[in-house]
Amino acid sequence: MPPEREAPGRLARWWRTGPPGPFRPGFWRSPLRGPWLTAVFGMVLLVGLAVVVVTGLLSYAAYEPRLPGNDTTPGRGLLGFYLFEWPTDPAWLYRVTQGAHVILGLTLVPVLLAKLWSVIPKLFDWPPARSVSQAVERISLVLLVGGAVFQFVTGILNIQLFYVFPFSFYPAHFYGAWIFLAALVVHVAVKLPTAARALRSRGFRRELRTGLADTRPEPPDPDGLVAASPAEPTMSRRGMLGFVGGGSLLIFGLSVGQTLDGPLRRTALLAPHGRVYGPGPNDFQINKTAAGLGVTAADTGDAWRLTLAGSRPVALTRAELLAMPLHTYALPIACVEGWSTEQEWTGVRLADLARLAGFAPGTVGVTATSVQRVGYFGSASFSPRQVADPRSLLALRVNGADLSLDHGFPARIMVPNAPGVHTTKWVHRLDFHQELS
H/E element holding 428? Predict the structure, then answer.
């Protein structure tokens, strides 16, 4: 046959059978893959990811992006439709929601990997699209898998403080979440009936009683998840479920302690921070050190002043602040990375400082500015409700001792239920603004 005819013939056969390797059905031979196992992992992910999504959206609301300087995602447009004024009660709400967001997200990693393993043949399905509905499903699957991998990888790197992104984590994670959520909704709408039928096809308890010797492939399915020529099993479905569940429990056990005070904090081996944070009463988590953010002893020494900017500008020394009425409250610091801790803070109420600047509490918000020279979150804005809460403090002491330099000496913000990055350290200026109300 002439070469010019032979090439089109090979191309046609290649198009019918698919490229070699993972694009051909015989490449995937695990006898465990099938609609039932995929559905089990999928339903666990569906429930878990629903919680992760809701707590993630609440985390964004807690940043009060409506206030000046707080929005790390410019141009959010319609994506901020649900935003509301973040409450100060209960004081532990952000600690719970963000802790659940991070710890549950980490716990779901083995389930996510198992789900991706169970459907990986679909990513190499050939031809790429046999119909419009299949094309929509394939696109949603690519966006779903890509979005899940992006969200989990960037989230875990951020938790571990590995800021290796060529982009800002906050807007990327925010917009990536919406893309992932849209793909998830489409995928669930398309596949939920199939998953429900698959779950009814065999009993969960029966599978847990089935050992390796009795493990058989599932019947052939129209989606092609079941291997065309399955190999002999080396693990039962019970073993697979135990392996994935055990991995999730292990990650949970090594992570959850960072959200709790007491002995369990020592079990948080996956926490990105060390085990010693400061002297005596200051021995609790530090996310960023003074040295790391360019804060020097000169910035916080005897020359330091707190400037109150308002209708009646005031400059106060630390001694003058300590001479004012002081109040003590047990308040948590809860960080976006998932760790949290409750300590006793002593300081001057923001409401009293608002009065000193010439404003009635409840009518103004405030922007707190740090002396830090580098890094993000050198300032944060708070709503009138947050300023008026009697537990909102310019904290000067913690657990009965002066703040250490790494914990914000000479003064830091403590507002109930605010994200940790908004508990601004090394504060030197408070700008009260009626337009924030």
Answer: strand 427-433
Q: Are strands 393-398 and 427-433 parallel, antiparallel or unpaired?
A: unpaired
Backbone angles phi, psi at 386, to 5 degrees: -65, -40
Supply the range of the domain harboring residue 150: 15-259
User: Alpha carbon of 15 to those of 10, 127, 128, 133, 305: distances in Å?
Assistant: 9, 7, 10, 20, 74
Q: What secondary structure does DSSP assign to 307-361, as a single string?
A: EEESSS-EEE-HHHHHTS--EEEEEEEE-TTS-EEEEEEEEEEHHHHHHHTT--T
Contact between residue 306 and residue 411 where contact means Cβ atoms under 8 Å apart: yes
Looking at residue 230, what is its pLDDT?
92
Distance between CA atoms of 173 and 186, rounded to whole angstroms?
Answer: 20
**Torsions phi, psi for 346 (to 5 deg):** -125, 135
The answer to whether 155 and 105 have CB atoms below 8 angstroms apart is yes
Q: What is the mean pLDDT of each run of 10 residues along the chain (437 residues)?
A: 55 68 85 96 96 95 90 80 93 97 96 95 80 77 89 90 80 91 89 93 93 94 88 95 97 92 84 69 90 91 94 93 98 93 97 95 95 90 96 98 96 97 96 75
On whether both 192 and 291 belong to a single domain, the answer is: no
CATH of the domain at 321: 3.90.420.10
CA distance 125 to 33: 15
Q: What is the pLDDT of residue 15?
A: 65
Are 370 and 255 within one domain?
Answer: no
Rounded to the nearest 10°, the torsion over CA 134, 140, 146, 147 is -170
Please list, in sequence order, all residues whose beta carbon lies within 8 angstroms of the beta carbon of residue 140, skipping any fewer than 6 positions away. Answer: 183, 186, 187, 190
> 3-state SS of 77-108?
HHHHCCCCCCCCCCCCHHHHHHHHHHHHHHHC
User: 81: closest CA among 65, 102, 98?
Assistant: 65
Q: Are residues 249 and 327 in the same domain?
A: no
What's the CA gap between 179 and 194, in Å, rounded?
23
Domain C-terminal end among 215, 239, 259: 259
CB 396 within 8 A of CB 322: yes
**CA 221 vs CA 25, 33, 225: distances in Å:** 13, 11, 7
User: Which residues are CB-contacts of 153 (< 8 A; sequence separation ≥ 6)?
Assistant: none
Contacts of 9 by beta carbon, 8 Å cutoff, 6+ apart: 1
Cα–Cα dist 293/48, whole Å: 36
> The pTM is what?
0.90
Q: Regarding beta strands 306-309 and 427-433, do their DSSP bridges make them parallel or antiparallel, or are they unpaired?
A: parallel
